[in-house]
Write a structure and sequence with these properties.
Layout (H helix, E strand, L loop, with lengths): L1 H9 L11 H9 L9 E16 L2 E12 L5 E7 L6 E6 L4 E6 L4 E6 L2 H8 L7 E9 L2 E9 L3 E8 L7 H15 L10 E9 L5 E10 L3 E4 L4 E2 L1
Parallel strand pairs: 6-13
Antiparallel strand pairs: 1-2, 1-11, 1-12, 2-3, 3-4, 4-5, 5-6, 7-8, 8-9, 9-10, 10-11
Helix pairs in contact: 3-4
């Protein structure tokens, strides 16, 4: 599963890409390195995705939603429901170098230090430079360009658009910069926007995974910490 998430990172699409490993989180907790959450986090719009995969012979489905910041605020949010009991929301604060995790079932919240640059450097990803295929398609009414890339384990196809009516530009810039730093692979200057669809195939087994955007929303959203117990 971890490999799938990193592959999605290569495709610039899965906010799980930002998540630190369980070991990193455990270490931060054991050291007492905690961040005090802000009272609330505000977002200007969101993208909802349906996630499908076949991992170790077992198919699964889930949902993931990305939340884009208001104005020039340097944050990004995600919620995940991967068919398990425990649903989570998270906020990455790039300026404060922190990650805030909302554990919905327990109504608990935890903030820990999070340095995306360090996490990316530690990931040791090696990927090919994304290439535009010239193919286009319409997803939810938005024209998307196909880009393909690969690493040692996966071939990945990503359908990107820069026509969304929400603030998604900063997300692409941040991910492109960090991916370039960690892999030495520069992102093409004309690869802009965010993905609305992805398909990936594991080379050795043929296992497939995908994410397809099912909803684009410009409705403001607020993550409030009221009612959550701080860990």
């Amino acid at each position: 599963m971890k490999t799938i998430l990193y592959t999605v990172l290569v495709a610039l699409m899965n906010l799980s890409v930002h998540a630190q490993s369980a070991q990193d989180i455990a270490k931060a907790m054991s050291r007492g390195n905690k961040i005090k959450p802000k009272p609330e986090y505000n977002f200007a719009g969101s993208l909802k995705f349906q996630v499908t995969a076949n991992h170790e012979g077992k198919p699964y489905k889930g949902e993931q939603t990305w939340f884009f910041p208001v104005g020039n605020e340097n944050i990004f949010g995600v919620s995940m429901n991967m068919g398990q009991r425990s649903n989570m929301r998270g906020v990455i604060d790039y300026t404060e170098k922190s990650m805030i995790m909302f554990m919905e079932d327990q109504k608990m919240i935890m903030g820990i230090p999070f340095d995306l640059n360090k996490t990316m450097n530690d990931s040791k990803l090696k990927v090919s430079v994304p290439k535009r295929t010239g193919r286009t398609k319409i997803v939810l009414g938005y024209k998307c360009d196909e880009w393909v890339t690969e690493n040692a384990d996966y071939n990945t196809s990503v359908w990107m658009t820069d026509k969304l009516p929400i603030n998604s530009t900063n997300f692409y810039k941040i991910m492109a910069q960090q991916l370039g730093k960690s892999t030495g692979t520069p992102m093409p200057a004309d690869m802009k926007g965010v993905p609305l669809e992805i398909q990936g195939t594991k080379k050795k087994t043929g296992e497939k995974f995908g994410m397809v955007c099912t909803e684009v929303s410009t409705k403001p959203i607020r993550f409030s910490t009221a009612g959550y117990k701080t860990m």
